[in-house]
Amino acid sequence: MHQSDLISSDIDAYLKAHENKSLLRFITCGSVDDGKSTLIGRLLYESKMIFEDQLTALEQDSKKVGTQGENIDFALLVDGLAAEREQGITIDVAYRFFATEHRKFIVADTPGHEQYTRNMATGASTADLAVLLIDARQGVLTQTKRHAFIASQLGVRHIVLAVNKMDLVDYSEKVFNEIVDDFKTFADQLDIPNLHAIPVSALAGDNVVDGSRYMPWYEGPSLLGYLEAVDVETEETSLPFRMPVQWVNRPDLDFRGYAGRIAGGIVRPGDDVRVLPSGKQSKIARIVTMDSDLDEAVSGQSVTLTLTDEIDISRGDVIATSETPPEISDQFDTTIIWLSEEPMLPGRSYRMKTSSRLVSATVNAPKHKTDVNTLQKLPAKTLQLNEIGNCTLAVDRPIAFDSYNENRQTGSFILIDRMSNNTVGMGMINFPLRRAANIHWQNLDINKAANAEQKGQSPAVLWFTGLSGSGKSTIANEVQRRLFASGRHSFILDGDNVRHGLNRDLGFTDADRVENIRRVAEVSKLMVDAGLITLVSFISPFRAERDLARNLMEEGEFIEIFVNTPLSVAETRDPKGLYKKARAGNLKNFTGIDSPYEAPENPEIEINTDDMSVEDAAERVINGLIERGIIEA
Amino acid sequence: MSATAQIHLTHLQRLEAEAIHIMREVVSEAQNPVMLYSVGKDSAVMLHLAMKAFYPSKPPFPLLHVDTGWKFKEMISFRDDLVAKLGLELLTHTNPEGLADGVGPFTHGSAVHTDIMKTQALKQALDKYEFDAAFGGARRDEEKSRAKERIFSFRSAQHQWDPKNQRPELWSIYNVQKHEGESIRVFPLSNWTELDIWQYIHLEQIPIVPLYFAAERPVVERDGTLIMVDDDRMPLKDGEQPMLKNVRFRTLGCYPLTGAVESTANTLQDIIQEMLLTRTSERQGRVIDHDQSASMEKKKQEGYF
Question: Could you give the number of structural domains in chain B?
């Protein structure tokens, strides 16, 4: 019986059938000319997801601005935001919905060429399947390869090659076969477990919903037929059980549940589980939902679990099967796609969010980046917007994970800029570089406390930051002179001096500045371990790197001293003649001129050298150290 | 029997799990969340999902209803009964200046009324309680400009939405980081369609306002729209006489701005049947959407939900 007949004759039977529909999320890839919008428009139209008022508007729009003469221009159904229409901006992924008797579909549509990698990666990250459109007249283009590459990188395991516009090549089987062979030759180097090709005409409707009388040589399902039948769930439920804990549910003292969405596998009461990263073991007691306790729950479900033992579990921990638990590490080989106009800064500390855990992460310079058009591996120092590269990533504490290849939920992460809070990168974990379980900090007999005690002082870092010519080094020098005179052990790390040796290989680009500070921060940490009062005199223009240095030290050890001299004053002093050179354009990336200085928000000590002598400034620093108990009066 | 072969989640189970996951992320990472409760069917589903997400705890946030003063009487009584039954905290806010100035749809027109009593009132309430995250029941299928809306939608301290500067949403990893004063509107029902909402209400037996069901109600016809005479504030034009008609509502809002449809559908099954057979989209009954093409998007940029 046809759907609409069932609706009028037996709505209860209709509802019963439709409540049991499954869900498929897919992405369509192709350029404007491949007929992608027409295809989606037709799927919406044929599955009767267009209402009469929308259809009337569509008919009017088709006449006004359509490209199909008096016929309906289905592409107009999937147009975008007013801002986008008016200014020609394509920034986004649009989601469309339609349903058939068997399935509900969510289509991620990524329009346009600009920002293509970013948009497609966004759409593909939640897709089970990708429909790759090819214009039969054009065959496999660079673009097709790019789409296939991105889809495979994002772990989309089902790809449908829709060879479109078959009506314009006389529905030729030969043309179709050549294109498919061509694509397969290329796709051999990618990881695409399930590939299916269908000859279609989105405009004429051949093999979109129904079959085609012009292509009797094709015996497979129509595109919609394929989308309705493809199985994407079995794989997910056959994975080992994982559930990242989102929220600890404690309504009263008698109940302690762990709420989360299952990220792989099946769970049943009585199952042996391990909690990561602590490694503690227990058994599932109950699977709690508001309706009733469940006998089992599967990947994709949001549930609340209780365990038979009282163990300490918090948000971000992973509850997993004890048979094959996820790995734990703090350093990974990853594939990163950069999403921001601001390039990736190797060495900078980013926030990293995995499935429900927020940590700090730093990324090393890429081992290589991949040209999405040629798949060539190219050397790279950083990643720009829309670039994809292979990078080592280190996090500030061990986390539980799977490789993305095995589990898309527990193997993925995003990178967040600490200043703008924007999502600047997306990443996939390939494999751990060291297993945290196997590395131990070398315990030394003479430790920091012993070193400090011997010297009779509390070690600290006095981090002087400010513009070139602000007076950092002069003040640091005076402070050290006084410390020395009172018998303290100290050392100065000066920007210029360090650049002559340790950091000789670094220039003044943003990326090099970040690395410059990272190295100095690590060195000053070692000096603090040696029990020294370490004075660091570096412009250190970026807040993020100063925060990184701060986070390396223990609470109270890091004293940020903002030498706040206005640019005009510093420029007048110009002790090394650098401002003059920068103004003349002979010195690039000079802080304050053509490179930014991000002033500290809450420095421990602030010095305005404009109205303070070097002696008074040093006095203020010494007093600050006494107040903080670093030295005694 | 192989357990794996048996397992398959329905689309409604997946949508439910996604919405619950979203709500738990917000509660874990936002400082002061709130759920905007409009008393309509989408709010009913959203509230039901919140009850499920945190069970056996109660949802750890209050509900906020922006009351324009022109809602159907039955909406208010339904709201108060439900909140009492569930034992939840309900905050209501009406724009005090608008109230003092007597702003209403009949005297000031739909555009001014909606702006002052709805858009501005919502901003006032969010500022007053310093909410940094607000759940809303909007869906991507409602309107073309919503198809690209994020699930987590960021608003500046002035509640502005910038369509050119939205964060990409990857996998189900949501970036909830924000600056002081900024807030997030969160739409857990983004991927639901109107039919999904009704099917879920049917399946889960979720209580909804009786106005959705057909009954004899007093209405007048204006510009082809049936408006219910819900109280005596409605000025009748010359010769206008409320007629008793069998009507129901597909969406609920301010009664003077909400068109009724003639119907005999008085069960959920009837409503779904009617919806599937009548082929006009639900927002057609909303007077505010007709102002101009792409009007929803304009309103959103100004801070409308």
Answer: 2
